[in-house]
């Protein structure tokens, strides 16, 4: 698959097969194309070449909302909540777009109990960690089979990051497939089953997490700078 920003190629000939139930971590330096790849999978950015397959079906031209209804959800970089709406509204608004399934308001609040007392607060007034919980909860409300997470740790305190990953561990236990962009390599190695490293728009490593040492990942990660 290819994706451009104007004339600039951001994703170059990437061929990626995501297996059901795996936790795939996408790593790479700033500008490597990770966000563009996730957004192209989610239908938020148009592929300039190649095909996005979903369950054997070509969804390359399908708009984002159709992908959501088929079980593909994106937690975007920067969270992109409706800041002036309440937490409850942010969560419920997603429900209409998604599929029926185990995730609803109650189960999301069980996964993120810190949101329970905040249901009627404006999303924009929450802490970063709480906002990230809303962003993930909003995606879960659509009952995704594949959850795409773009830098969920960014700007959060270590404690908040731990909280987010503890909750995600519960989500993983439910069989949801995850593709996550994460800068923290230690975190990547502890959660991912597979690691894909991108460099200048291309996939340069694709291996089971337990077959890669930190030094190998770092070498690929910083390939452009060395
Ligand atoms: P980061 O960790 O900084 O988010 P990334 O690996 O997610 O990096 P992308 O954000 O996908 O990478 O960026 C890939 C390339 O596309 C970079 O060269 C970036 O400058 C460029 N790019 C990204 N978004 C845009 C945009 N909206 N307009 C123009 N160029 C863009």
UniProtKB/TrEMBL annotation:
InterPro entries attached to this UniProt entry: AAA+_ATPase (IPR003593), ABC_transporter-like_ATP-bd (IPR003439), ABC_transporter-like_CS (IPR017871), BCAA_Transport_ATP-bd_LivF (IPR052156), P-loop_NTPase (IPR027417)
Sample GO molecular function, one term: branched-chain amino acid transmembrane transporter activity
Annotated SUPFAM superfamilies: P-loop containing nucleoside triphosphate hydrolases
Stretches assigned to the ABC transporter domain: 1-225
GO biological process: L-amino acid transport
Gene3D superfamilies: P-loop containing nucleotide triphosphate hydrolases
Keywords of this entry: Amino-acid transport, ATP-binding, Cell membrane, Membrane, Nucleotide-binding, Transport
Family recorded in the similarity comment: Belongs to the ABC transporter superfamily.
Name used for this protein in its record: Branched-chain amino acid transport system ATP-binding protein
Organism, as annotated: Acidovorax soli
Lineage of origin: Bacteria, Pseudomonadati, Pseudomonadota, Betaproteobacteria, Burkholderiales
